[in-house]
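ok so I'm stuck.
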Amino acid sequence: MIRARPARPTRPARRFAARAGLALLALILAATGVAAQEAPDAALPEGVERYTKSRSDCFLPGERRDYDKWIAQFRQPLAGCDVGVIAPPRVIQSHRLYKERSGWIVDCVGMRQKEFATRFIDTYLGEIVSRAEEAETSPAAATCGANMLRVWAEADAMTEIGDGGYEGQSELKISWTFGGLSAAYFIHPKLREAAREIRTADGGTADQEILAWFRKLSGPVSAQIDRERAENNEDNLQYWRGYAILPTAFMTGDAELTRQSRRVFDAALGQVVMGSKDPADDGWLPYEMERGPRALLYQMYATTPVLAMALLSKSEGCGFLAGEEARARLTMMLTRVLEGWSDPTIVSAQVARYGRNGKRLRQIRTGTPRRAARLLYLANQIDPKLYEAVDRNLAAFTGEPSPVFKPTTGAKAGNDRLGGDYRDIAAAAERPGPPPAAIAGVCRAKG
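replied:
not stuck anymore, here's the structure
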């Protein structure tokens, strides 16, 4: 659900806030002792409209590239890492992306503040994922990645939220980043093995320090899940939170975190409309249909962590997807995503049904063919029968021969917020034994 916020500040105030946000970031990063070059200006430049449908419209050519060069000066040297490590920020301050009371109109003022205040965090996450993937064949990459995580863990990075941004977006940035970091650490065993070999100043290991940091980060995310559930906000953001806490739950044997992740998974499937008078109305996620022309993209985006939870949960012999009703709901949710990719007008009909103004809105389809194939790859890794059921539905809808997408089409895809390459998540799911005793009761439970 979209929350209201206080009255919007004036343009001069927004310009001051944009500069203040970058000033805060520079102060945080300046702890490295490097003299800062001129910071990029997050204020809205001439020629850029305030509101748009595309995030990229909010930036002039080369602006984000210049930001990356500015951030690079704050890297800290780190033994074994050629490029060092981005300085760890304890305080995170992000900003609202969409126009007030809208779930799809981009506010370029907030978008620019968000990007220039937190883009370096995405860079750090991407570098950890890359080192984790390289770690399986390179001991040097494993040691580098483990040390990069250790540095941020020792600094208690991302454990506080600044008061000058939008708290909800800051919480999400931390949650997404935490989920990607912890998943990369969990699904790449060589990275964790390297961390166990690194000794810390107190005589412990980097692995212990990293896990302690993950536990600390999981606390606020867990609290957010409870808060949003109390407000009946079981939407895509909640599903990503459910995925974010799962690797830490498994690595620390935390039954309560495991139970909470499973509840998010079950609640996500519970949001799928089923049993409608008109079968064409089944399979949709109503919250995501409130996203106007982005509804198709958001149903895809929401489906991703649900499939990822189903797959990753198999890695500990837990398997969240259990029972015929759950399978039927996941099948329909995924079917509608793929049918919507084929014919976006069926999504527009649901937008008219659930949206505030009751209008059919043409759907944005950027990147949807790639995403459709990736979702089917994940489905096939969960269970080939799930993939086959969805593919049959899609073939019947499109009139194309089966398979519409081969099960391996999305195999080379990855997502930093999921921890990296989809094949690595699938590989982790293929290593299950019986559930560890600490979480066995949760895994055996029916929901």
